[in-house]
Amino acid sequence: MAIDWTIVLEICDALGETDEGPKEAIRAIRKRLTSSAGKDHISIWYTLILIEACLKNCGRRFQAQVANRDFLHDLIKVLLPKHNPPIQLQTKILFLIKVWIGPLVYTALRRKGVQFPNSIDCKTLPPLTFTYSILKMTSTPKIPIN
User: Fold this and answer.
1) 102: closest CA among 60, 133, 63, 59?
2) Which of 74, 67, 6 is nearest to 34 (CA)?
3) Which residues contact residue 13 at a Cβ distance below 8 angstroms, ignoring those fewer than 6 apart?
4) From the CA atom positions of the chain, what is the Rg in Å?
5) VHS domain: which residues (predicted)?
6) Would you place residue 126 in the very low, low, confident or very high pLDDT band (cuts 50, 70, 90)?
7) Domain 5-136 - what CATH class?
C-alpha cells in the first residue's frame, strides 16, 4: 500500500490551524498506538510515518507534544515483547526515538535550565558497571538488536 503524501501533508497543515491541533493529534496518535499494539503492525507503521512527517512539518508545538514523557512511554510500549513487533517496526520506533525525540527532550531540558556535561567530560568518566541484581530489577523491554 502506497503512502498518499497529499493526505499526510493536508493533515500536517490542519494541525497548525488551531492552538489545540498538535495536542489533539498526539492524543489520537497515542490512542492508535496503544490500541493497535500487538494487533495491527501496519497501522502502527503508517502512524509512525505520520508522526515523522508532522515532526518535520508542524513546528514546535507538535514537537513539544512528541517530547512529552507520556507519548514516549506509549511509543516504547509498542516495543514490548508481548506485542511481538516485527524488526522493521522496532527499527522505525528506535529511529524516531534516537533522531527526533532524543534531541527534543534534550532541548526541552536545556530550556528548563538543565546543564549537560560536554562530550569531553563524558569521555573521561569511568565505564558504568552493574550487578546482576540491579539489571534484573529494570523493566526495560528486551529488544533484539541486529
Assistant:
1) 63
2) 74
3) none
4) 17
5) 1-117
6) low
7) mainly alpha
- Cell match 515532526: residue? 55
Domain ranges of the chain: 5-136
Query: Rounded mean pLDDT of 27-46?
Result: 91
| Location of C-alpha cell 558504568 | 128
Contacts of 3 (CB under 8 A, 6+ apart): 46, 49
Nearest to 104 by CA among 144, 63, 145, 74: 63
CA nearest 94: which of 108, 75, 80? 75
- 42 vs 29: CA distance, rounded Å: 14
C-alpha cell at 76: 516504547
